Records
---
Amino acid sequence: MKDARLQPVHLADYTPPAYLVDGVELTFRLHPTATRVRARIAFRPNPDTTDRRFFLHGEDLILLSATIDGTPVTPEVTPEGLTAEVPDAPFTWETEVEIAPEKNTALEGLYMSGGMYCTQCEAEGFRKITYYPDRPDVMAPFKVRIESDLPVLLSNGNPVGAGAGWGEWHDPWPKPAYLFALVAGDLVATSGTFTTCEGREVDLNIWVRPVDQGKADYALDSLIRSMKWDEDAYGRAYDLDVFNIVAVDDFNMGAMENKGLNIFNSRYVLASPETATDRDYENIERIIAHEYFHNWTGNRITCRDWFQLCLKEGLTVFRDQQFAGDARSHAVKRIEDVIALRSRQFREDGGPLAHPVRPESYTEINNFYTATVYEKGAEVIGMLRRLVGPEGYDKALALYFDRHDGDAATIEDWLTVFEDATGRDLSQFKRWYAQAGTPRLTVTDGFEDGTYTLHVEQETPPTSGQPEKHAQVIPLAVGLLSPNGDEVVPTTVLEVTETRQSFTFEGLAAKPVPSLLRGFSAPVILNRETSAEERAFLLAHDTDAFNKWEAGRALARDVLAAMIAESAAPAPAYLDALAAMARDEALDPAFRALALRLPGEDQMAEELHSRGHTPDPLAIHAAREQLKSAVAAHLGGLWGPLYDQMTCPGPYSPGAADAGRRALRLAALGHMARLDAGEKARAHFLQANNMTDEIGALSVLLEIGSGEEELARFERRWGDDRLVMDKWFALQTSLAAPDRAAATTAALTEHPDFTWQNPNRFRAVIGGLTMNAAGFHDPSGAGYDLVADWLIRLDGVNPQTAARMSTAFETWTRYDSDRRARMRAAMERIAAREGLSRDMGEMISRLLGAGR
Ligand code: B3K
Ligand code: ZN
């Protein structure tokens, strides 16, 4: 292991680049084991600094030649890059290097997947392609020539020439190296066109392997809608003549926003009704939009350094959430986003990996593509919009695009734009970017002489490296209901800025019922002693859809907590409220399906932990199963009619309306299975004509400990379809009974199709086990050991995906001493691996740091 690369990088140490790049010309002669890359780079000294040290990043490259203005030079080469004596004036630098894409199992830089060449450069992969100042604040236009016998040769920008065995591309928009991309393969396109509001005709192509032909229509449709939406909602038009998307089977994450050439994990492109679920369609729509939106928020305006990652990611997530809300239902979308935020980001914020939205140091930046940077980053923007209002937000964004187009910008630039556009002082608000941890809001109230008072206290618990926190600006959206259920005060946003603060409402006839944190107006944990009756009242009467759902959710949490702690029976108030809601035909089926879903086991563990208990995963699992069965029995007469009512006439459509009906129907089916031993679910499985119903019925069966025959049948039918088989694997490991989960997973790792070097398959099998809370945390420790064994193995070939999956252990400090000891031992075993990657090394030391 190379020591220089293990040193942490600090935000405070930023210095501008010594040399800037005016233009880059790259020539690739592709070969699986000996690709030649020639680079011709026009450098000039950066006038904004006196630093004249010339350093180019480069890793795992064989340097064949180097010249400056045509004269051969011999640079000093280290494992991290090279230095050379260069003129203090503009000069042309040329090198030729050799690389071996076929041997690149880390899937970073130029690599091969299913016979095609592809790239992944964010964050620091370009240095594995050629020597270059691989930092986002060095931006340049690129010309690329690809030489290969493969039929389709793609790079960024516009095509400028092609012939037998070669293709040339030119990207006129200056960009950092992390947005570089190249693809070469035997591919087929699903094509369309889009005319921008500026009158530019854009050719759109979604490229897939021939076996996947016909499965890219929804991706193309999503792309066209995204392009239109960005024009309408943000006034942002596309800026090249072509937009290409390529689906790749081996990919470390979801997708990548390379300029004009997005590269996608094939699971977020390929869809047909028979093979993709409603959730898959929704994800495709969201991720296509997300990567497209990066063209302005990320590419045209990029980040000065990687500490500013949330500048592009938080904003782009916020934009894709707005888009999905417009395309589907804002209420349902908000609920889904908050479920995801709580289960991933609150979990991160509550454990040893907690870090600010803008971290202050890192060793491996790939470890910081986190729920905090992305999802909390998006929440911070939502709060900003709430505080300055929609018009203020639009004004600020217009100024942002105007002022910073072509820049590599910072969070300071971003906030200054808001201050300049709205006249608001955001110095306290800035703490959201710097303080880690989820703020707790404790609310009490009083009523006297027609005046209602809310007393609010805020506190953010200490997190790693941040023992003390300061008060943050928290937009608290509140509405008040009269005891008869009418809304007496519509939603107003209270600005909580102090540690302790009171807010009054005058002229009320009776003590109101408060609806707090409407729309989940800030990413905080709200504590308020609330009776089951009051929650049931809000569930019935709240006009804020999010809080209506939240009232039911909070009830469910309380009921489960009492069942676990006191072996209490499920509270009738909850069961009755649920019945009323499930029957309410005025409510959107998707909303009703969400309301019927119980909080997840891991979320219950987090909840109990934050209430000061040591969670027992097995007790949580048992209580949740018991509650599901109680709901099934209590609402026994409802399920059959609801199931019959929620059919979707006509051919399959992935739209929100039908998807909502299918979700509610499957929820009904899940409850019925607890009463009829799965009879109806078996029939549903056999009759299914789309993947949502097929896999939905199969999971219902697995949840009640049945479905063996159906699993076998499913495998026979779908054995050749990689993406569908990922579902088959994941379902078994994530739904296995707690005491059998590790054994089931171990058995599946022996399956001939467990191609573990494929990240999707690895995540399906091993990731599935880590999602099975009771199974992973089985007291035997078998789950921990198995996951550790596989992370050790994967770390040797693909450190990025292995490190990301080590977050399975991030909750270890929540648990009892026996489980803690076993998890610690598993992590220490990983840490002891010879040649441990930098990625994993940093993760384990942060994970263990908390409990050492
Ligand atoms: N920007 C990429 C993520 C890159 C991850 C690098 N480890 C995808 C996205 O957020 O849109
Ligand atoms: Zn992104």
Note: DSSP finds 26 helices and 31 strands in the chain.
---
Amino acid sequence: MQQLFTIFGNPVSHSKSPLMHNLSFRGLNHNGCYTRYRLEDGRQLRQKFFDLNIRGANITVPYKEEAFKACDELDPFAQKVGAVNTIINREGKLYGYNTDAPGFLKAIEEFKETKRVLFLGAGGTAQSTSMVLRDAGYEVTLLNRSEARLKRFREDGFKTYTFETFYKTKDRYDLVVNMTSAGLEDESLPCPKEILDEVIPEAKACIDVIYGKDTPFLKFAKKYHKPIKDGSDMLLYQGVIAFEYFTNHKFTFEEIEKYMREAF
Ligand code: NDP
């Protein structure tokens, strides 16, 4: 019987996930179909899951925390970060996972001998990725526009700064990562230009989690002739890991990646 999968979010019309997953279902000859579902109210997520008889789903902005609450069982990492982007229905119980963070970790693997990472931004994506990076041995520092979101990171033992307190720290970072939504739908930089002028020359590479777009941050990094990378691989890898859950680890990472990459 065909299994139904979907992405829940609002908006979802721009999402690449249906194409990514359907290419892999077809390529691997697995009887699955992946759709998209614009959810007006995150509290309906659990009920919709059962009403539509969905086998597995991805959850995107702004419902990753609602998805966390909707699950019966959470994997330890999702539990730790408080955000779920992948849910599987196993015999009427919803199991939640977070594949964004391991996806990001895999996406930066190519930058060898990097240890010190500066995150510009302290939202939900920074929350899960900072944990996964620290577990993998990286040192993550967070720089955010405003103070409020930094508190949780400080309590978790991360070094944090606002724009005002960052100046003249003279710390060096191997990777500088735009973890904000600055540049997604506007032309703004994630932090004042003066800070970028301080940290980018010392960095080995600059990464943006926004994908499919030459963001102002990446354009800025190019002026310093730094290697750059957008968020496409992060998106791809979080999808591959989700697909592994969807299909109960029936296929290898490489097999799934081969077909999913055709979406890019
Ligand atoms: P959140 O809404 O949780 O956090 C947004 C963060 O961006 C906050 O730190 C906020 O600062 C900061 N910010 C927003 N606008 C500006 C601005 N103009 N200048 C400076 N800082 C700004 O977002 P998410 O963590 O969910 O998402 C962040 C980005 O990650 C998005 O662009 C999203 O598209 C991308 N993403 C990419 C994925 C991929 O697979 N490639 C997966 C998941 C997310 P403040 O606290 O001051 O408001």
Note: The chain has twelve helices and twelve strands.
